[in-house]
Amino acid sequence: MKRIVVALGGNAIQAGDNSAAAQEKQVEKTIKVVAKMIEKGDQVAIVHGNGPQVGNLLLQQYKGSSKDNSAMPLDTVVAMTQGSIGYWMQKALDDQFKHTDYPHQAVALITQIIVDANDPAFKNSTKPIGPFYTFNEMQKQKIYHPEYSYKQDAGRGYRQVVSSPKPVKIINAPVIDTLLKSKFVPIAAGGGGIPVVIKDNNLQGVAGVIDKDFSAAKLAEDIQADELVILTTVDNAYVNYNQPDQAPIGKVKVDQLKKYLEAGQFAAGSIKPKIEAVINFVEKTGNTAIITSLRNASKLDDGVGTIVYN
After folding, report:
1. Which of the following is catalytic: 166, 218, 272, 274?
2. Could you say which of 2, 11, 32, 157 is catalytic?
C-alpha cells in the first residue's frame, strides 16, 4: 500500500459551459478515473485546482456587488470554490464507492495554508485565473475592471492574473494524516488552499491564489507521501514543446529535470509550476513524482508519464 497525493487541475473540473450541472458532470468523469487508484488499496489524498472557477466567481461577485451586498475578498472566494468543488468531488466519490465493496468515505476539508507576508509574489501577479480572452476582449475587461491585471497565458489567450505566494505550512496536515490512517479519502488544499498569514498571533486571510501543484507537493511532503502524482492534459512533460524536435520526457532523474528547467524548457503558467513542484517534492523526500494525463491515472504502475526520481 502506498500513500499518494493526487493533484487535479481546475480544467479537470471545467466543462464546456460554466454551469454547476456541467462542471459536476465533468467531476463525475474525473472521479471515476481517480477512484480506480483508490480501489487498489492505496491511501489517496486529492488536491484540486480552481483557476477557472475562482476567476469566474470573482466576476460574479464583482457584477453583483452593491453598497449593501459587497463582493467577497479573494481569500473567501478561494474558500467558496474549495467548498463547491469539494462538494462535487465528495459526492462523486461516495456515489462511486457505494457501487463497490470498498469501505472508504470521502471528506472535503477546508484547508488553510500559511504563506509568508513578505513573499515577493504579492508584488508581482502571475497566477492565471478565470476565462481566456482575445486581445480585444481583454482590453474591454480592463475598462470594466481597471484594478485587475491580465497576461498572455501560454499562447492560448489572455487571463486575469493574481498574486501566487508559495505555501509555507499546511495547517491542516495532521488532520489529513489522521483521515488517511482512518481509511477516509481527504479532498484537501483545494484551489491550492486558502492563503493566510499570522498577524498578532491570529490567522488572517490574504489576497492570492496558491498554485495547487506547489500545495500538493507541500502536502505530500508534510504527510510523508510515497508518491506525488500530478494529472494534467498531456501524457508527458516535453522538451522542445511544439517544436519539430519535440520529445516526451519519460523516466528522468531530478538533477536532469532541473537542467531542463534552467534551460527554459518549460512555459510559465503552464507546465513550469508542475515541474518545480515535483522537483521540490523529490529533492526533499527522495520519493517519486509523476506528471501525466488523467487518462493514464489507472496505468501508473505501467511506467507511464514523466517519472521523476532522486
Report:
1. 274
2. 11
How many Cα atoms sit within 13 Å of 99 on the Cβ side? Answer: 8
Q: How far apart are CA 166 and CA 127, in angstroms?
A: 11
Domain annotation for the chain: domains and CATH numbers: 3-116+168-308 (3.40.1160.10), 126-162 (no CATH)
- Tell me if residue 206 falls in helix, strand or coil: coil
Which cell goes with 29? 468523469
* Grid coordinates belonging to 53: 472557477
Q: How many helices (H) and strands (E) does the chain have?
A: 8, 17
Q: Which residues of the chain have pLDDT under 50?
A: none
- Report yes or no: 195 and 115 within 8 Å, Cβ to Cβ: yes
Is there a catalytic annotation at residue 83? Answer: no
Name the catalytic one among 86, 127, 208, 218: 127
Q: What is the pLDDT of residue 73?
A: 86
Ramachandran angles phi, psi of 307, nearest 5°: -105, 120
Give pTM, 2 decimals: 0.89
Task: Tell me the longest C-alpha to C-alpha distance in the chain.
Answer: 58
Whether 127 is catalytic is yes
Given this model, what pLDDT does residue 52 score?
A: 81
Provide the residue count of the chain: 310
Among candidate residues 42, 60, 43, 57, the one with its CA nearest the CA of residue 10: 57
Q: Among this protein's residues, is 10 annotated catalytic? A: yes
Sheet holding 127-133, edge to edge: 127-133, 158-162, 149-152
Question: For residue 127, what is its C-alpha cell?
Answer: 497566477
pLDDT at position 18, please?
A: 77
pLDDT for 307 equals 98
Task: Write the pLDDT tens digit of every residue in 117-130.
Answer: 999 999 888 888 77
Catalytic pick among 9, 10, 192, 269? 10
Per-residue pLDDT, 188? 97
